[in-house]
Amino acid sequence: MTELDPITEFREDHRKARDGLLDIIEALKAKDVVRAREILGNLNILLGPHFKYEEETLYPTLKVFLGEYVDQLIEEHDGVIETALICAELLKKDTLTDEEAEQAAHAARALLVHVSNCDGLAILSERLSSQELKELGVKFAAARETGVSLLDWAEKIRKK
């Protein structure tokens, strides 16, 4: 079975999400709907396995440090998913009004806050045992192997 360094991979996913969100903001400023749609599609693919891993594996493991704060992280995911759905719906259009483009860009900026906050979990993960980290790496790889997109995972698989 594939094994990953869960801390390195977790942080790299956050870098990709950060860059994608910043790129989508730029595309929306330019009203380049095609480019924004493409970026959102890439984020959808990247974040499905990531969210699956977080909610099913990482958050329960970090509960030893965070206690009930883990529930807030899941609530943040609810907001991210809702925002992604709204953006996906907006980006089905061929063109956006100034207001729609700004609304979508504002949503992307809000998602950057979650990316930033969530990346801080890596520092807590460093306190886990080598066996726990190994198990996290295996589960992260398994989540990636599913290849499920964020919106499909949220709609069809996520346990809420």
General description of the model:
This protein has 160 residues and is an all-alpha fold. It has one domain (6-153): Four Helix Bundle (Hemerythrin (Met), subunit A) (Up-down Bundle), CATH 1.20.120.520. Helix content is 82%, strand content 0%. The two termini are 28 Å apart. It comes from marine sediment metagenome. This is Hemerythrin-like domain-containing protein. Residues 6-114 form the Hemerythrin-like domain.
Brief summary:
The chain contains seven helices and no strands. With 160 residues, it is mostly helical. The longest helix is centred in the first third of the chain and has 34 residues, at 33-66.
State the main characteristics:
Four Helix Bundle (Hemerythrin (Met), subunit A); 7 helices; about 80% helix; mainly alpha; about 160 residues; Hemerythrin-like domain-containing protein; Hemerythrin-like
Per CATH, the class reads Mainly Alpha
Can you summarize the main beta sheet?
none
Cα gyration radius (Å): 16 Å
Elements, N to C (H/E): HHHHHHH
CATH topology: Four Helix Bundle (Hemerythrin (Met), subunit A)
What is the correct CATH architecture? Up-down Bundle
How many distinct folded domains? 1
Share of residues in helices: over 70%
How many β strands by DSSP? 0
N- to C-terminal distance:
28 Å
In what range is the share of β-strand residues? under 5%
CATH superfamily membership: nmb1532 protein domain like
Shape: elongated
Helix run count: 7
Task: Provide mean pLDDT, rounded.
Answer: 94
The low-confidence parts are none
Secondary-structure class: mainly alpha
InterPro entries: Hemerythrin-like
Pfam families: Hemerythrin
Domain Hemerythrin-like: 6-114
Protein name: Hemerythrin-like domain-containing protein
